[in-house]
What does this fold into?
Amino acid sequence: MNDYPDSQHLRDLEPPLLKAVQAVLAESPPADAVARVLERAKRLEVGAAGNASQGVWDRLSVRLAAMTIGQRIAVGAVGLSAVVAWILLLPGLSSLGRLSAMERMASELKEVKSYGYQCVEHVTIQRKGQTEPGLVDLTQFVYWRAPGELREELKIVLGGVLPAGYHPGQVTADIIVISRTDGPGIFVDRSAKTFCRLAKMAAEQTGSGSLVYPMLPLRTIREQPGKVLRDLGSKKIQGNPVHGYLMAYENSDYDQVEIWLDPATDLPVEIGWEAQDETTKSVERMIDFRWNIELDPKLFDASPPPGYTEITAPNDKESLAEIAMALQTYAQLSGGRYPPLDTYQVNAKFDPEAIRAEMLKMAGFSGPARPEWASDKKFLEIQEARPGLEWIAKILRNGTAAYQGSKVTPQDKDKPLLWWWNEEPAGYRVFYGDLHNQLLTASEAKGVIPPRPRIFDAPVEDPHP
It folds into this structure.
């Protein structure tokens, strides 16, 4: 009968045993390492561990007693290695080895000074009424180096059967994000050839893991011991031996995570997980990890690319007033509505020149320009609306922004009309139907800003085919 303790009982024994093993491997062990470890283990058994842990002590004592006197009193590397090796080979201690691997990995992750890896995700979406699924393929490259420089490259490509307005091979994201703690960062959209500046990252964010390990799984395995569900055994990845574990973590978005470790470094070689519901299946892998590597400083250069247009959203009073004035002028001319556009619709575009032309037409200024218009108050008001309209168009090129003029009127004082993410101070800048605006935290905005529709929700018709 197997009466060895479970992993919970062994957890308290692990740190002292591991310390002795590490000392042996370093070939500079204290003379009484094993004796002190076993004594410490025995003390830890008192209380909650109960009879099960006493069984571990009994077995360790029996193994030691079976050794020769020379083996038990040896203080050299060979003699002590034999003692510790025998301890670790005890039947039933495999759970201890697994927990040690995870704790060693977490410890090593905290000491890393730089890294690079690739993340690949394949998503399959089976939509109602469609026999073939839609596909989303995501590829991400991440580079980081201490004390606080991070580069993320992300590309998303669509495939399979898609909703109206999309086509196979369409790139919905091709971006670079550079974040730094020593100065401003940058967000670059390679498809649109635009960029916006990002606020300097706070120094404390490196300690929280938000900058050091931006991907949630890396933060999770760094900060939680987790529970070993299964030992996946050994295999080779790119010709190198690895050992895998199927893990579970509390308060995680992932039910089970596969972690494959390099036994020589205790650092991840590959991390993978899957998620599935009634319509969607996602398979994600973090691969090609390279730890403590030399990285080119140019990777973290936050200078704007040549030929790209800046779309950094405004936060000064003058620009915000220009936006409000432009929308107010349109509402006055149209009889109480805003430019009828919803940027949550596929391919919807806020065209400032087309909207200004519409305003001129509503005010009676049609045909070729006439000299007398230059002194007309209404004409001048429409001309003065141009900067605000251009600001809105520029802001809406940022993926965090949206406008819902087809759903919100000047009477809707509590409904959001236009919003975008503001870098500094951080938060969502929201214009409401009555054109007052405020800055909301991310948590406050959740109850105000309508969520962006997913691509594979019900088909969204293009209002401007």
Remarks:
- The CA atoms of residues 24 and 102 lie 20 Å apart.
